[in-house]
Write a structure and sequence with these properties.
The relative contact order is 0.19. 20% of the residues lie in helices and 28% in strands. The protein is α+β, with helices and mostly antiparallel strands. The chain has 5 helices and 9 strands, in the order H-H-H-E-E-E-H-E-E-E-E-E-E-H. The strands form 2 sheets. A 6-stranded antiparallel sheet has the order 1-2-3-9-4-7, with helices on one face. Strands 6-5-8 form a 3-stranded antiparallel sheet, with no helix packed on it.
């Protein structure tokens, strides 16, 4: 595996024994060199010759979440053991304090729902004026419209529950590709 992935054996061993997690760029390198989708790295088991059923479920904890850190957010992708999901749940800690600090608006396939757990956020979108949301407040939007979530005035950070959805099976890969080389 080390030879094929270009990742040292010692690093792979630490990952296998939960003593180390790979950075986004290493996960991307691994998926590219193995010629598999990045979301398949997080799925358990195989689905070859499996009868498709509609009763799907995944039970998880924050300890099992796939963590991705970017300059603006700390993402915790939940229930990553399910493959080909049309809905991606995540808990996100927001750190950026302004649209300028955030940078370019983000766009991706599908729709998303955000529920503010802690703090207050300011939601910037391509076609609407910014809106401020506090704990217990929500927003639902078309994700193909440019958007950004930043911490509202008076708050250091904010914590939100997000759900991104799409009929396209590649949603997880699409979301992960947004993190680019900034992920750590």
């Amino acid at each position: 595996m080390s030879e094929k992935s270009g990742i040292p054996v010692s690093t792979l061993s630490k990952v296998e024994h939960d003593r180390l997690t790979l950075t986004y760029d290493k996960l991307q390198q691994l998926s590219q060199r193995l010629n598999i989708r990045m979301s398949d790295l997080f799925a358990e088991g195989t689905d070859d010759n499996v009868v498709r059923v509609t009763g799907r479920r995944s039970v998880g904890t924050m300890d099992q979440a796939v963590r991705v850190t970017t300059p603006n957010y700390d993402y915790n992708y939940l229930c990553t053991d399910l493959r080909r999901k049309r809905m991606i749940p995540l808990i996100t800690r927001i750190r950026a304090h302004s649209a300028r600090e955030f940078g370019d608006l983000v766009r991706h396939q599908g729709e998303e729902f955000i529920y503010v757990i802690e703090g207050r956020i300011e939601v910037h979108t391509e076609f609407y004026d910014p809106v401020v949301l506090g704990p217990g407040e929500t927003i639902y939007l078309d994700s193909s419209m440019g958007h950004a979530y930043v911490v509202a005035d008076g708050c250091e950070e904010a914590l939100v529950l997000g759900v991104c959805s799409s009929a396209d099976e590649g949603l997880m890969d699409s979301l992960m590709s947004l993190h680019g080389d900034a992920a750590a």
